[in-house]
Design brief:
Nucleotidyltransferase, domain 5, about 260 residues, 11 strands, two-stranded antiparallel sheet, alpha+beta, 5-stranded mixed beta sheet
Length: about 260
Amino acid sequence: MEIKLYQSLVGTAMYIMLLTRVDISFTVQWLSTSLNRPTKSHLNAAKNLFKYLNSTKDYSICFSYNGNTVADLGPKLSNSSNTTTKLSRDFYSKEGPRPLTTTSTTIVDSRNSKGSSRTSIINSSLVPIGFSDSDCTGDKATSKSTYGYLYKLAGRPISWKTKRATTIALSTLEAETNGLIEAIREVQWIIGLFSKLHRPIDYPITLYGDNQGSITVANNPALHARTKHTLLKFRYVREQVKAKIVIIIYLNTKCF
């Protein structure tokens, strides 16, 4: 009976996560790895997740026509019943699709009084930007890695995923590259989204990662000793970079 309850809780949480709640993506992925043999700890974790969801049930992802934030994974406005209608109205009018704003993406590297650098990302409303990350052998039971990506448009998340790898990565470089590959594959969906919105897309799409090794390999066609065992994966990433579908930029996540 508890197994069925656990499976029901995880299934419901996954549905909610896929709709709007990017903030529970990692937790849902972790819970879903024990669907057939959950322990009491797993069940308690699932129940705690729903306590969190209940306490943040007013969180939403909203867009506004003039680029001002209605809400960004934060509480809705008091007139929350009109949120869905407003979202649709802000994207479209009788004249057809309308732009959100006309700003562009820039990177600002500022230094504080101690001299340490912090990279800030100024989001563009017209240009999608992506983020990719992965751990290495993070699952202690299986030594498999968990990777994830997030794409934002107008500063709001539009696509995200967290997944445990099916095979064991032999290095951090390989684990991070696996994450980059999944993020690059999602670009095809981004292209399709812009096509449905009847908007041109500016190439290359910027994808941020925090592993300098994988970014170096992506931009360097030379064969490295550490990459010869996964040559096809690295060639795929290089192909997308060379075709100017994506550009991969280093982002120091330790600054955040």
